[in-house]
Each structure stands twice: as C-alpha cells, then as structure tokens.
Fold:
Amino acid sequence: MNDAISATRATRREWIGLGVLALPCMLYAMDLTVLNLAVPSLSRDLQPGSAELLWIIDIYGFMVAGMLVTMGTLGDRIGRRRLLMMGAVVFGITSVLAAFSPSAETLIATRALQGIAGATIAPSTLSLIRNMFHVPAQRTVAISVWITSYSVGAAIGPVLGGLLLEFFWWGSVFLLAVPVMVLLLLLGPRLLPEYKDPEAGRLDVLSAGLSLVAVLAMIYGLKQFAQDGFGPRPTLFVLAGLAVGAIFVHRQQTLADPLIDLRLFRVPVFSASLAVYSLGAIAAFGAFVFIAQYLQLVRGLSPLESGVWSLPFAGGFVVGSQATPYIVRRVRPAALMVAGLVVADIGFLGLTQVDVSSGLALVVAGSTLLSVGLAPIFTLATDFVVGTAPPEKAGAASAIAETCAEFGGAMGIATLGSIGTAIYRSRVGDAIPAGVSAKDAETARDTLGGAVEVAATLPDPLGPALLDSAREAFIQGFEITAIVCTVIVTGLAILVAITLRRVGGESEPEDRMEPLHLEPVPVRVQVGPVAAPHLWAESYRRRYWENSFDRLDSYLIELQEKEKRYSRKITKEEDTDGRKN
Structure:
C-alpha cells in the first residue's frame, strides 16, 4: 500500500510545473486591477464616452465569467495544457493590440478577446493541478500556491502599474502580459503534462452559447444593480439570465455529452463547497469595494498609495492560504474553516468602528484579519470541489468553481454596494449645505466620488462642509455593510459546521464522484412479449457512475471473485495434467 501511495506522490517536475502554472494566474489578477490606474490617461488619449469607458473596464471580466464553463469543458476534451497554451498565445497577441489601440472601439474589442483568452487560465491551471497532485495533502499545498498567485497578482498589480504609468503611456500596463506568456509558452510544454478525458464527446455549441448568454446577462444585471440601484433594466437582465440558465440546465439533462455533468451536484461535499465558496466571495468582494473607496475618497490617497496600503489585505490571503495546508494536517478542515471565519468576523467587527477621523491602522488591521480568516475557506473549498470530481471532469469542475466565484463577487458588489449606496443617499440628502446648486446637489447625492468632485469646485466654506457631510454619510454606509458581512460570515460558519463536518483530515473528502471503468455486463431486457437476451445495458454502467458510495468495495469484491475463478481454473488444469501423467 505504501508503495502505491509513494508512486503517486508529486516529484520535482510537478512542483516546478506548479510554479509555471502560477505565472498566468498572477497575470490574470494583475490585469483586473492595473487598468483602473490607467483610466485617466487613457481617457485623455482615446476620449471614450461614458458608456465606452465602462465597457473598456468591464468587458474583460464579463467575457471571463461567460466563457469559464465552455473553456473548462473544452479543456477536458482537447487537453488542458493545449488549451492553456492556446490561451497564452491569444492573450499575448491581444495584449499588444490593446496597448496600441488607436480608438476606444478597438480597445473594447481587444479587451473582449483578452477575456476569452483569460477564461482558459483558471480552469486549465486548476484542472492540471488536480491531475498532477494525486496525494490529498500535496494537492492542498498546490491549491494554496494557486490561490496565492492570484493574491500576489492583485497586490502587485496596482503598485507595478503605478510605477509604469509614472514613466510610460497607458498602454504599457497591457505589455506586462507579454513576457509572462512567452515564458509560459517556453516552459509549459517541457514541464506540464497533458491531460484530457479519453471518453469525451463532442462540444455542444448551443450549450456553450446558452451558458455565455446566461452568465453575461446575470453578471451585467448585478453590476447595474451596484451602479444604479434596483430598477427595471437590471432586473430584466437578471431574470433573462435566469431563464436562459434554466434552458441550459434542461438541455444538459437531455444530452449524451453535456457541457456540465449535473451529477456532480449530487455529491454533497461538492455542492456544499460551491455554496461556501460563493458566500465567502460575497463577503470578501463586498468589503473590498468599500475599503478601496475609503482609502481614496475619504482618506484622499492616490491610486498608487491606495495600492500600497492594500498590500496587507492581499498579504493576509497569502499568509492564510500558505498556512492552511500545514494546519489542516493537525485539525479537521471544518474546524479550521470555522476558526478562520471567527477571525474574519473579528476583522469585520473592527471595520464597524472606522470613522472619518480614525487612522489607517484600524482599516488595515480589520482588512488583514478578514483576509487571513477567509483564506482557508477559499483554499479548502476549491480543494474539495476538484477533489470530489473525477480526474477526467476536473476542467468542468474547476470552471464551475470559478464561475461561482465570479457570481459571488458580482453579487457581493451588487447587494452590499446597493445597501451602502442606499444608506449614503438617505443620509447625505438632508446634510447638503444650503447654497449648493440643485445640479451639484444631485451629483453629490449620487456617489461619494461625485461629492468629492463637486466639493473641489465650490468655495469655502461650502466645499469643505459638503465634503464632510458626504464622507460621514459614506462611513455610515460602510459600517452597516460591515455589519451585514459579519452576519454573512457567521451564517457561513454555521453552514460549514453542518455540511462539511464529515470531511476528513488533509482535505480528503469522504464523498467522491469517482467512476469505475467497468466492462459492460450483458443483461436480459424484456421488450414487449419477447425477451431480448445479451443486450448491452448502458443504464447498468450509469448506475455505477451515479452511485457515489461503496464503489471501491464492489470493485475489490469483483477482483477477488476473478482471482478465485482464476485459481480454480489453474487448479483444475493441474489436476487434469496430473491424471494424464
């Protein structure tokens, strides 16, 4: 038994390959953050309209979210490494095109192509990790490195982007991708093994289109909720996305080769881990939106300074993710996750004490504690999702996990952002000083950013008075949002304690969807009044697939029976030879 386990342990090649996989993940996170710094200079050169500017910023994330499921399943069919290499080529080329875009329309198109290429990164890298690291403890370490690469990318993106913009034009932030993708193309074929589903069927194009439309519609609607509040337009998009999603799910149930195998959701650990992942993303993304606004609009820091003060937040995820594999060897995963959520609750409670005059230390301490506490949630939930899925379905499972993260982030920004915005508007409306024009007052009521811009144009004492009122209203919304996050995290701790308590140590899930490749068994099927013998019953194999318990015992019993039959055959042949002699 020990020899079998040691034979599956990762070697130096796999660990070096993990470092190669971390490169595109880090770049993916950087690309989500650096563009915000380049918006001012980009706007001066390309002069986009307000709608075009929003699409320049958002289209990348929209296309990533919409294409994750398709790319994850496509990797299972054509090979995870091949898909990653193809994505690297497209990402590198579109990065150069984006850097030298002559117009806003060109930049929107190249950013959309970047998003399609970026959608290959998360499912390909995570599914490769699932197939490269078979020992659960090693897989947990690998996933912690994978999550850390995203945190590092998010942390250094604003800092590195700010430095580039100090000396170069706005397009330089896109060129960061080129050396990373070149390195991936050089090292990937040498260090990364190829994996794909040997029995994968064809890709259903209609299902891919349905998934894209459903995800894009819902993400867009949620984002409109965050920007404009609840209204008929975003509600219509969300409902349309849900309707198309329902059609997509129904189609998967009728296909022989579905885009997503819905039987994955019958595994309790898989479904519970997705729920935990999504709720954790809601709290994390919703809180970070307010933290970023606090640093820039309340404290008056520049984007680069805000990026520097956000480093502890990202560093908390790094520390928590790296510590998780070592702690989980000594305590059960559910206990570690609950303890982490308690730490996150302390961080959120600290943020409820932030006010206009409080120092940066309180915000930094609270954000660091919540990131350290949430890190085990994301690490172990990701591990459970890919660990419970069969290796040949790892790409689809990884894509589902990342799609849930995208939805959780969008939901957190939309719901918590709407709550904070509603409180801000209700409090700032009556506090606007007399003498501010109706137009300026409307702008100030809309967002804190608008109030800051209006206050800069007003004379003393109107400007400072408006700014103080707006900042105080924002802080009240920030505090209420932190309280809501505390409630979410507390409920999440209860959910983890109930649904994941059976998961064993070293993140080895007890529930697993692991099909055995048994040979078809001839059975007699009654067709009308006549028996049709020796028909191959596909349903017989499907029952083995769908049953997530006792498969290993059945397989061992079958092997024992074969061994007994073989022994009896050998004994009979020996007896026959003895009688002949």
Summary: The longest helix spans residues 462-499. Confidence is low (pLDDT under 50) at residues 1-7, 510-550.
